[in-house]
Amino acid sequence: MYFIELNNGVQIPQVGMGLAAVGGWQQDNEYVTDTILKAISIGYRQFDTASVYGNERALGRAIRESGLPRETFFITSKIWDTEQGRSKTHDAFARSLERLQLEYLDLYLIHWPVPAYTRETWEAMEVLYQQKKVRALGLSNFRKADIEQIATFAEVRPVCNQIELHPYFTQQPLVDYCQFHKIAISCWSPLGTGSSWSGVSQSEKPIVDPLIVKIAESHSVSPAQVILKWNVQQHRIVIPKAEKLENMRSNFLLTGFTLSNSEIREINGLNGNKRLGGDPDYAHKNNLTVKVPD
Ligand SMILES: NC(=O)c1ccc[n+]([C@@H]2O[C@H](COP(=O)([O-])OP(=O)(O)OC[C@H]3O[C@@H](n4cnc5c(N)ncnc54)[C@H](OP(=O)(O)O)[C@@H]3O)[C@@H](O)[C@H]2O)c1
């Protein structure tokens, strides 16, 4: 397993599993728990959930049913737009822990920037960090200006920024800015989004791009493995979501081949600044209409 050291010394497995819409949007049932248990048996230890994914209980059950010690896992959850603000952040965090039945989180992220609330939310998160209820604090979907805002008051530095990143949307200037400031990049929708929630058709995804397929064939690996390795070799965290066992396996097994610098450059060249998911410039209004289930 590959690890990345975050800027506060905490180690995160570089390959994790994303849990948005496993079994459908906001499903919290035995199917989700079983899917996570399969991932655990393959070797996954990093799991990325969020209050709005509505499956924290299923993840907590899988952790308990695995019989593995809590400290072997790296568990991330996120605070939704409607939960931001000083006291709401404390309430939202407590609810996430309760649903997960955990005593602490490894990483807690602000899911989307809401600049009017960022200071209150982050300061409340800093209290949770000082109380050792969370091992690291981070951001998601933060633009450069949002990070600059945090830098004006934060006492605890964000360890990461989880952003949409795949070969068609590489966000290189933001990646360079974050990595320069030792904010690790975690790539969401690394394979080009999960069909069940995004409505993106298979033919639009980088996973079927002729260049990716050609490079995959030349290494005798899958296109998904090429995209994930392209991220891993550039020191980025990946959280692909997979429900099919063969997909889960191949996404986790990234050893045994290395992309050359020219292959990495060729894949970088696929960037078309093409977002397949939400845009932080506009997402907040719609996010307010999406409820966090109990
Ligand atoms: N912070 C944010 O705002 C944000 C936004 C979106 C997502 N995320 C996080 O990022 C995670 C991943 O993103 P995502 O779920 O949108 O999409 P993704 O990981 O890019 O793609 C998931 C899709 O790819 C398929 N797939 C997985 N492995 C494959 C393989 N080896 N070969 C072929 N197809 C494969 C999956 O199919 P099967 O499931 O059928 O195997 C699923 O349809 C989410 O689960 C969530 O944790 C965060």
UniProtKB/TrEMBL annotation:
Q: Pfam families of this UniProt entry?
A: Aldo_ket_red
Determine the domain of life of the protein's source: Bacteria
- Which InterPro entries does UniProt cross-reference here? AKR, Aldo/ket_reductase_CS, NAD(P)_OxRdtase_dom_sf, NADP_OxRdtase_dom
What UniProt keywords are attached to this protein's entry? NADP, Oxidoreductase
Which segments constitute the NADP-dependent oxidoreductase domain?
Answer: 15-270
Instruction: Tell me where the transmembrane regions lie.
Output: none
Can you tell me which family this protein belongs to? Answer: Belongs to the aldo/keto reductase family.
Protein's name according to its UniProt entry: Aldo/keto reductase
Protein source organism: Microbulbifer spongiae
